[in-house]
Design brief:
This protein is mostly helical. The protein has 16 helices and two strands.
C-alpha cells in the first residue's frame, strides 16, 4: 500500500506545482507591467486595483489551455494578463454603478479617488488590455481581436441586462441564465479560447474550450448565488445575505418567486421585497427561511451541478492526453468546491 499511497501524494503535489508555476508566472508579469506615468491620477488607480490581487482564474485558464496543446505556454502569459486587466476594468466600472465601497476588502477606486477618475482610469485600463493582446503572433492577431471584441460587447450587454433586472419583478430563469452567461461566463470562455488560439489548435477544440468556460462560468455564478445566502461568513469574505438585503435578482430569488405562487410564502416574500425600513439580519433570516421551506437551495445546487457537469464533459471531449488536462481539471474542481 505504501508505494501507491506515496505515488498518489506525489501526483497531487505535481498537479499543485503546475498551478503554482502558472500562477507565479502570471503574477510576475502583472507586477512588471508599466501602464504609464503621467498624469499620475490616471495610472495610479489602475496599478492600485491590479495590486489588490484576486484568484487570477481567467489568466490561469488561458495559460493552462495553451499548456494542454503546446510546450510554449509562456507565450500565453502576456495575453492572459490582458484578459485579467480587462476583467478588472469591468470591476472598476461595476463598482461605480453599484456605488460599492469596497473591493477585495479595500476601498474601491471611486471611493479612494473619485468617480470621474475611476471612469477615466477604467477607460485607459481597457486600452491597456488591448495593448497586452497585441503580444500574440501576427497570424492569429486578427482572430484574437475579433473574438475579444465579441466577448467585451457581450460583457457590457450582460451588465445592462443585470441593471434592467433591478427594476423588474418578472425576470425568468432563462433570462437570468442568459444574463450571467454574458456578464460572467463568456469571459471565462474567451480566456480558454484564447489559450487554444495561441496554441493554434483546430476549431473543434477551440469551440470545446469556449463552451467549457461558459458552462463552468454559469456554474461559478450560481455557486456565488448560493454562497451569498448559505456561505460561512468567515470563509465567504463578504456579508452573507447581501443579495437578499438588496433584493438582487439571483437564481434563488427568481426561483422562490416562481415556486411561492399560490402558497403562504408568496405573501411573506412580497412583504419583504417591498419593505423599506427593516432590520437587515431579520430580513436575511426570514427570506432564507422561505427559501428553505421551498427547497430553493437544492434547486440552485441541481442547476449549478448541471452546468459544472456540462463543463467537465467539454473538458473530457478535448482531443488531448488525459494527463495534460489534469491541471485544468484540478482548477475546475477547486472552483466547484470553493467556499468563498
Amino acid at each position: 500500500m505504501l508505494p501507491s499511497f506515496f505515488y498518489f501524494v506525489a501526483h497531487l503535489f505535481k498537479k499543485q506545482m503546475s498551478l503554482d508555476i502558472f500562477f507565479n508566472a502570471i503574477e510576475e508579469e502583472i507586477h512588471g507591467l508599466k501602464y504609464g506615468g503621467n498624469p499620475v491620477e490616471l495610472y495610479q488607480p489602475l496599478e492600485y486595483l491590479m495590486s489588490l490581487g484576486g484568484k487570477r482564474i481567467r489568466p490561469l485558464l488561458t495559460v493552462m489551455a495553451a499548456d494542454i496543446f503546446s510546450a510554449n505556454w509562456k507565450d500565453a502569459v502576456r495575453p492572459a494578463v490582458g484578459v485579467e486587466v480587462f476583467h478588472n476594468f469591468t470591476l472598476m466600472h461595476d463598482d461605480i454603478m453599484d456605488a460599492a465601497p469596497l473591493r477585495r476588502g479595500k476601498p474601491t477606486v471611486h471611493e479612494k479617488w473619485n468617480p470621474n477618475v475611476a471612469i477615466l482610469s477604467g477607460d485607459v485600463m481597457l486600452i491597456c488590455a488591448y495593448e497586452l493582446m497585441t503580444a500574440v503572433e501576427d497570424d492569429i492577431f486578427k482572430q484574437v481581436i475579433k473574438r475579444f471584441n465579441r466577448t467585451a460587447a457581450e460583457v457590457c450587454e450582460g451588465q445592462q441586462q443585470d441593471m434592467n433586472f433591478a427594476v423588474r419583478n418578472d425576470v425568468t430563469e432563462d433570462e437570468y441564465i442568459d444574463m450571467i452567461r454574458q456578464k460572467t461566463s463568456v469571459l471565462l470562455g474567451f480566456a480558454l479560447e484564447l489559450g487554444g488560439l495561441i496554441a493554434k489548435i483546430n476549431e473543434t477544440n477551440i469551440q470545446l474550450l469556449f463552451n467549457m468556460g461558459v458552462n463552468i462560468g454559469i456554474g461559478f455564478q450560481l455557486k456565488d448565488d448560493i454562497l451569498d445566502v448559505y456561505g460561512d461568513p468567515e470563509k465567504f469574505g463578504k456579508q452573507v445575505g447581501g443579495d437578499i438585503i438588496e433584493n438582487k435578482k439571483t437564481f434563488l430569488l427568481i426561483e422562490a418567486l416562481a415556486q411561492a405562487k399560490g402558497k403562504t410564502e408568496e405573501q411573506q416574500l412580497e412583504q419583504w421585497l417591498s419593505a423599506v425600513g427593516f432590520d437587515k439580519n431579520q430580513k436575511v433570516k426570514a427570506v432564507t427561511a422561505i427559501y428553505d421551506s421551498l427547497g430553493i437551495k437544492q434547486m440552485a445546487e441541481a442547476k449549478m451541478n448541471e452546468y459544472f457537469r456540462k463543463g467537465l464533459t467539454d473538458l473530457e471531449k478535448l482531443d488531448a492526453p488525459a494527463e495534460k488536462k489534469q491541471p485544468l481539471l484540478q482548477l475546475i474542481q477547486n472552483l466547484i468546491e470553493r467556499e468563498n
